[in-house]
Amino acid sequence: MADRLAKQGTALPQTRQTSTLHSAKSLIKSAVKSWNCQWLLRLSLGKNWESLVSRGPLNHNLPRTVSVAALRMRTGHEYLASHLHRINIRPSPECQLCGHSTMNAEHLRTCSAVDHSKNYQKSIFKEAHLYWLALHLMAQHPRKKK
Ligand SMILES: [Zn+2]
């Protein structure tokens, strides 16, 4: 494929530009980065990890508990009822804490069984707090039989 593209490139009109090695490297890096982003976006469509690409990488300076919670929630591998139901561990995806909805990362923002009173400057910290609180409550409450 690279050979075919290179051959096509030779047929394109060439502009005469003087550039330094540094600017040429910078242009190539930028083009490769752009191409990789587009490739990853196409590859991730419909996958659990699509949000990792579309929302960008996580901040590397976050505390581990926040990073782990954010990664799990972004990928859908968060060990909440919907995920546990998908992997045949729970009989229902329903929230075992309030029983009103499918228990996933979105539901935690409105679940009546978790305490929403704590305020954080960044929403990622609040989501991590709600996530770990929900997992703690799930561990305390026995599983409902269906
Ligand atoms: Zn709930």
Task: Please specify the SSE layout and strand pairing.
Layout: H1 2-11, H2 21-44, H3 50-54, H4 64-75, H5 81-86, H6 105-108, H7 123-140
Helix pairs in contact: 4-7
The chain binds zinc ion (ZN).
Protein name: Reverse transcriptase zinc-binding domain-containing protein
Organism: Trichonephila clavata (Joro spider)
Distance between the termini: 55 Å
Which ligands appear in the coordinates?
Answer: zinc ion
How many strands, what sense, and barrel or not for the largest sheet?
Answer: none
Instruction: Tally the helices.
Output: 7
Task: Report strand %.
Answer: under 5%
**What is the arithmetic mean of pLDDT?**
89
Protein name: Reverse transcriptase zinc-binding domain-containing protein
Organism: Trichonephila clavata (Joro spider)
